[in-house]
Specification:
The structure holds 2 protein chains of 2 kinds. By secondary structure, chain A is of the alpha/beta class. In chain A, 32% of the residues lie in helices and 20% in strands. Helices cover 73% and strands 4% of the residues of chain B. The chains are: A alpha/beta, B mainly alpha. The structure holds adenosine-5'-diphosphate (ADP), iron/sulfur cluster (SF4) and magnesium ion. Chain B: Belongs to the binding-protein-dependent transport system permease family.
Amino acid sequence: MTEQTVRAPQTVTRAPRTRAEGEEAYLEVTDLHVQFPTADGRVQAVQGLSYSLPLRRTLAIVGESGSGKSVSSMAILGLHDRKSTWISGSIKVGGKEVVGMSEKDLMSYRGADAAMIFQDPQSSLHPFFTIGDQITESYRAHHNVSKRAAKARAVDMLGRVGIPNPSRRVDQYPHEFSGGMRQRAMIAMALVNDPKLLIADEPTTALDVTVQAQILDLIADLQRDFGSAVVFITHDLGVVAEIADDILVMYGGNAVEHGPVEKILGAPLHPYSWGLLESIPAVSGTPGPLHPIPGSPPSLLAMPSGCAFHPRCEFRDRVGGDLCRTLKPELIPRTADQGRTSRCHLKEPDKVFETEVLPRLP
Amino acid sequence: MLLYILRRVISAISVVIVTVVCSFLLFFAAPHDPAGVICGPKCTPERLKDITNSLNLDQPVVEQIGLYFKGIVVGRDYSAGGVTRHCDAPCLGYSYILGVPVTDLLARAVPVTLSIVIGGATIYLCFGVLIGTIAARVRGTTLDKAAVGTSLVIGSVPYFIVALVIALYATFLPKSQYVSFFENPFQWAAGLLAAWLCLGLTNSAQYTRYSRASMIEALGQDFTRTARSKGISERRVVYRHGLRAAMTPVITIFGVDVAYQLVNTIFTERIFQLPGLGTRIINAFNQYDLPVLMGGVIVGATVLVVMNLVVDILYTVLDPRVRLG
Ligand SMILES: Nc1ncnc2c1ncn2[C@@H]1O[C@H](COP(=O)(O)OP(=O)(O)O)[C@@H](O)[C@H]1O
Ligand code: SF4
Ligand SMILES: [Mg+2]
């Protein structure tokens, strides 16, 4: 447990990795449901989510706010309050089942096997403890070492995430750090125990654009060094192209499309993904008109029947037999390509995309 | 940091000075015949002359204030009954009615009041924070509702009713009296126990609610989620991360609150017959003992100002974000 070898940073440049056959999943989410009983009824935040992720791979989860991205990833760390949350399904991390894990097992699991960085580093760090104190605490939670050794480790980690002068910064408080430096410190804290799964929940949303790019690079570099699996939550499709291997598109608590990043960004199969593409500004940088998806996200208290997206979908009348309103589509391959799945009844979605959607993209 | 403290000390001193000047004007310059009032009902012409002379009441007000401050800083002489007495600094005047220097009188009363408040405040702070924290942890449960309900009930019973109940029913408590801590710490504590309980009980309700609200807020913060995600025990999450954040506002309220308790113990002292500041000031009030009242005002103002200063400094220690204030 006290392994402290520093891996030499590899110098390979980033190349799109294709999913090797039989690559073993480190994270495996199966039919995950997360519900919150409230006075108004059950909030069905996640409804039957399944995906898997091997080591050394980055999965981007995208979707409108409220689609269940954070709720599903907090479940991976077992962070939901047992009493007020109803969870079913399975989440396996490195072979350990997290759903229903005892408080004691959760303690040794959290931070060691999987760690998380959050959207707002300002509020996610404790304002009254020094950065070093907070990192050391994480390290000592899983390593039986002296305070001095833990602090040395903290300084080392701060250096590795690119914080200048780490031996001085380690004794400073979060408010003495800039936003970007705070997020770096947060990353150092998450990685201090060398977890094999890192979940980053919109880690750059609260930061300046220039700082965003640096943090993205940092996460990509560290992932290579640490060889971990990364779940990267974002609603910025531009970010996705830079960092992810795979994309999972979430809508109303469910995955609607899943596959390799270049395919899904290049030619998505689900009408909701088409809407997302249309709603981002032109990649060329010329500010074109934005087309937000008409309508609003579904109520998680009373989900629409059939396909959750049907009230907002312009293609629902293309599907015969009123299927969109009556039958919830499965997340399965919809084209000859077995490596990508989509939850939509539409026939030949690749052709529809090419002939009807592609021409109107900015 | 030092500069900050220095600035605060200077402003604190100026507040006290302004208070002294204002109350001096109120007590000695405004009344028709301050000498007559100070002299009391059994006044003789010689005594009246003594008073007028030694308080320089025949001189301009500015002169009088100057002499009063001089007394505070270096001491001064008073003549009473043909004898001239020296009143050491910090001299707050001389009570012609009681025949003692005001400083001596108050110096004997201050430890009593301090003892009452320190003991009572310790009880209500500890008790309130403990119950409030536990209630926050189990919020929504029967235990939480019981804690909140009880604190609401206790908090809405008037103070003197609680005091009365303790005085009437808690007869197993030691007799209320004041014995100096340095004389006998056990008797000191025993004699003050009833007063402490009364103060502690009535105020703990309020602190239960503060602590509970503050703790619930802290436990809902992002940094609590971060703490949980580290793999530390729930106990550590609550009592290290949560409590540290939740206590900062509570301690701030506590500091200011203790200051007010110190100048408002009249009830407690009266009910439990303890010779503290409040008792002295009430007596002085009934006897129109202006010098004692004046001294009481100064002590009270100083206590408030000092406690506010302590709270501000404490706050910079508790919250690193304001350290460079
Ligand atoms: N503790 C909770 N109680 C009730 N509803 C919740 C709770 N946490 C999240 N939700 C709801 O679950 C839905 C999904 O939230 P979230 O996963 O945070 O969305 P996002 O995709 O933006 O991260 C939202 O509608 C949110 O209001
Ligand atoms: S299933 Fe029907 S409604 Fe749902 S996205 Fe596909 S076409 Fe649209
Ligand atoms: Mg979110």
